[in-house]
Amino acid sequence: MKRIILSLLFMLASFAVFAQSGRAIYNRYSDAEGVSAVYISPQMFRLIGRIPELNVGDGKVDLTPVIRSLSGLYIISGPMDAIGEEMHRDVLKMAKSGNYELLMEAKDDGQTMKMYSTGTEQTVKGFLLSALDGDECTFICLDGEMPRKEFEELIAAIAKDGEKDE
Fold first, then answer.
1. Per-residue pLDDT of the chain (166 residues; tens, 9 = 90+)
2. Cα separations (Å) of 161 from 56, 106, 130, 157?
């Protein structure tokens, strides 16, 4: 009897750990009807990272240093139906159980966006973005070992570039 209980507890613990990763959320929802999904592998990041400079915006934001350090990118977008609501709950569970820190939350007219990161003072090991836009739910997860300084400079440059566009 103890073996059965211990086995069940172990299985539940394994499931809980599995359910709390970007890859697990991607695998769970990427084949759902009406869902758009993108996965970029570590090999693709290594290939992109060989490009000397990969600029976005007006050419002033260089993504290369951060891209070289990524080991996975998962993007899922779909309708805010039962599956979208379940995915959103799983993302929030992942953020809480993975020691993610809320970086930013924005709410406007039924739209909500939250950004989270996890890591140390020197390194960002994960970044999550969860967005609810009325009838659509979006999840973006970056995995890797990004130097925090470079990650923060990238976010600041993108924000600054975005202000110019307004």
1. 434 333 333 333 333 333 358 889 999 999 998 999 999 888 887 777 666 555 555 555 566 667 778 888 899 999 988 888 899 899 989 898 878 999 889 998 888 989 899 999 999 999 999 999 888 999 999 888 888 888 887 777 766 765 555 5
2. 9, 19, 22, 6
Pull the structure tokens for residue 161: 């570039």
Q: Is residue 105 a contact partner of residue 112, using CB atoms and an 8 Å limit?
A: yes
Is the whole-model pTM more than 0.85? no
CA proximity to 100, closest of 71, 77, 80, 130 = 130
Is residue 70 within 8 Å of residue 48, measured between CB atoms?
Answer: no
Tokens in use for 83?
A: 């599956």
Specify whether the CB–CB gap between 19 and 86 falls below 8 A: no
Q: Tell me how many degrees the CA angle 155-48-56 measures, rounded to the nearest 5.
A: 40
